[in-house]
Amino acid sequence: MSHNTFGHLFRVTTWGESHGPAIGCVVDGCPPLIPLTEADLQPWLDRRKPGGSRFVTQRKESDTARILSGVFDDGEGRVTTGTPIAIQIENEDARSKDYGEIARAYRPGHADVTYQTKYGVRDHRGGGRSSARETASRVAAGAVARKVLGDGVVIRAGVVQLGPHRISGEAVDFDAVYDNPLFAASAEVVPAWEAYLDEVRKAGSSIGAVVALEVSGVPAGWGAPLYGKLDAELAAALMSINAVKGVEIGAGFGAAELSGEANADEMRLGSGGSIEYLSNHAGGILGGISTGQAITARVAFKPTSSILTPRRTVTRDGTETDLRTKGRHDPCVALRGVPVVEAMAACVLADAMLRHRAQVG
User: Fold this and answer.
1) What pLDDT shows up at residue 59?
2) Torsion over CA of 285, 287, 288 and 294, rounded to 10 degrees?
3) Residue 144: its H or E element
4) Which end of the chain is least crowded, N or C, by CB within 10 Å?
5) C-beta separation of 339 from 143 below 8 A
6) Which DSSP letter does residue 228 get?
7) Angstrom distances, CA of residue 196 to CA of 158, 190, 201
8) Which of 147, 146, 164 is nearest to 155 (CA)?
9) Cβ(337)–Cβ(125) under 8 Å?
10) How does pLDDT run across 14-33, given as a tens digit for each residue?
11) 350: closest CA among 230, 238, 172?
12) Other Cβ atoms closer than 10 A to 315
């Protein structure tokens, strides 16, 4: 199995399976002399870890990260050395017996049939490598990327749509996201959304959602056209997240409804002769290069495919059957997808920053 690595100068390789002894990542290309300890990783992992509320899987994992390489205590604290940073997260609560039935039957909506077709073998225990458990490794890598970017780049995401229920653009409040169990970008919608998701959860079903991303502090100039466009690489990274089926940058698909006059982000001169934009339909990226405005994107997550309602499927021996997916699953996978969206954006931007510095100084 190839393609477990992404990035160019800031490169991330993830490894491990859902029910193996551990998962982890190797971050290569991190500059030296950046302060880094497990305490820099853990707050981000704690936001993604399971078992935090009744609205997510009840699998009990501490997601405790351990840095195995790439740092050194120089007498004033641990700093990166410029060598590969290996991070390990142990799996503490794998319950493989829940997946005995799907060893022979393919779960609809999952990667079971495609993994079996491609490789001739698959790990049915929670999906193995295809499980969203792997995203903990991405969040750990994203924490390293944030250290590379520094405090000037602020990356925030939150759920702005749960099923048919939407938060209007002017009501989005990213400050509210990590203060509620739904990762909602508005405190006002939480009671109604909780009642709605409780109904979905108690029915043994699931629902999709949309996560909005906003990044401020990125200077103009990051991105490498034509085939290293910042928006293209950001979209690819976000599309690689489990259950993501759509990504739009800026106005996205809404731009198809706008006229040229309405869509163009007009400009004026600000104080000191700097360029000021009067709108941001481009999402902070033009020609694949950052404009200095906020980078914005929206990410659509499909409903969790593991549900209790019997679904029609087939078995490995070619028999038609019905299948209920047992085990512990998120009724809305997008909730814990919020820190993953932030992490992937951080990794892409850290890579873009290092490449920009290498090319133009």
Assistant:
1) 67
2) -10
3) helix 135-149
4) C
5) no
6) B
7) 18, 10, 9
8) 146
9) no
10) 999 988 899 999 999 999 99
11) 230
12) 14
